[in-house]
Structure formats: structure tokens, C-alpha cells
Design goal:
This protein is mainly alpha-helical. It is built from nine helices and three strands.
Length: 222
């Protein structure tokens, strides 16, 4: 939606002449993967328990892994029918991972190939690119960044200089206080491209099995 507003040059969706924005199609092969990631990002408190239980899909537990091979993250589908404190994704790294995968999934849904997705990212999100160029995550999912505008939750002004010293010579400089190695470097282009390939393969397989009509954008026979 953010990208849609940017390319149309609008400040909001209530201006005259704004064309209808793309919307999810019921029965789409990627609707359940999108729903799981969206719910785990947004169902942050017990106030969301009813909607979580209503929309819960038992297939998530066995058939919905992370698309990108994020090392160190708990399984995406490791959830229960009732809301628990660990139902929402809470670490900075896990939440970012879900957002990256949603971008890739929606691109596949809209018919954008990986190159178009990367071009959109490069052309319209220069600030995010600047932030991600100096963003890392520790083994527990805490973010550490070299730009003050995107500091991690537990980061102090001394954390990143300590981190740079640790990267330069781990044997001589300990990791920053409150952080645990190993560290993971953000690389959104690679992550989106690999996740896009997985979601595209899932959609192609559903079309090959006759479970989705890509021309009519509907489940055949409905």
C-alpha cells in the first residue's frame, strides 16, 4: 500500500481519482501464508485472542515454514489454536523477517517478478536502504544499527562502536553489552529474492494442480 501511494503520487487514498487498490482474493493459494504472517505481526495482546482463534488454520503447524532460511528463528508455524504470549512475533529480527516475506509474497500475488520487486525497493525506498546497509541482529533477535534513526530497542550510543570493534577483532573486543553473537547482517534484496522464488513456486504448483486459475483469479469451478 505504501508503494502504491508513492507511485501514484498521492498523499492518501481518499483523494479524487484514486483507482481501487489491489485487494486479497478469497481462495488464493497464498492467502493462508499471508494470513499467518499478518496475524503473528498484529495479534500482540490477549485482546486479539478471539480473532486469532477464529482465523487459526491447523495446517500452519505442519505446512507453513519460513520461506527464507532464517537461521536461529523459531518455526513460523509453531502456534496453537488459542492465543498465547508467544503467538505474536516479538523479537526485532522475527518481525522484520515476516515483513520481508510479506513483501515477497504480495509481489508474487500481484504478478511482479523478483526483478520488479527489487526495482521497486531500489527506486522508492532509499531511506530504508540506507538503514538496512548498517543493520545487524544478534543471536537473540536484538537489532543493532549504525544509523541513530533506526537504533535497536536495547541499543545505546556506545553499542555500535563496540560492535564495530568486535567485528574487526572478535578475540580482542567483546560484543556490545546486552548482545549475543553470532550476528546476522540484513540483506533485504537477497532475502526478498529468495522468498519470492519460494512463493512463486508454491503458486505455480497450485496452478499446475488445477487449484487456481491465474487468468480469472479464482478457484476453478467456483
Amino acid at each position: 500500500m505504501d508503494y502504491y501511494l508513492r507511485v501514484t503520487g498521492r498523499s492518501h487514498l481518499r483523494q479524487a481519482g484514486v483507482r481501487p487498490a489491489p485487494a486479497p482474493t478469497p481462495g488464493h493459494p497464498l492467502s493462508s501464508p499471508l494470513l499467518l504472517r499478518t496475524l503473528r505481526l498484529n495479534c500482540l495482546t490477549r485482546a486479539y485472542a478471539d480473532i486469532w482463534s477464529k482465523l487459526f488454520d491447523p495446517s500452519w503447524r505442519d505446512h507453513e515454514p519460513w520461506a527464507y532460511p532464517w537461521q536461529g528463528l523459531p518455526p513460523l508455524g509453531d502456534v496453537t489454536p488459542t492465543w498465547q504470549r508467544d503467538t505474536p512475533l516479538r523479537t526485532e529480527r522475527a518481525r522484520r523477517s515476516a515483513l520481508v516475506e510479506i513483501d515477497a509474497l504480495v509481489a508474487v500475488w500481484l504478478g511482479m517478478d523478483a526483478d520488479a520487486l527489487i526495482a521497486a525497493y531500489r527506486g522508492r525506498f532509499p531511506v530504508l536502504q540506507k538503514y538496512e546497509a548498517v543493520t545487524w541482529f544478534d543471536a537473540d533477535g536484538w537489532k543493532i544499527a549504525g544509523n541513530a534513526r533506526t537504533y535497536g530497542q536495547r541499543q545505546t550510543k556506545d553499542s555500535f562502536p563496540q560492535f564495530e570493534a568486535h567485528l574487526a577483532d572478535p578475540s580482542a573486543a567483546p560484543p556490545p553489552d546486552g548482545y549475543t553473537p553470532p550476528f546476522y547482517k540484513a540483506d533485504r534484496e537477497r532475502e526478498m529474492r529468495e522468498a519470492h522464488a519460494i512463493f512463486q513456486a508454491r503458486l505455480d504448483a497450485a496452478v499446475a494442480r488445477g487449484e487456481w486459475d491465474p487468468i480469472k483469479q479464482e478457484v476453478p469451478g467456483q
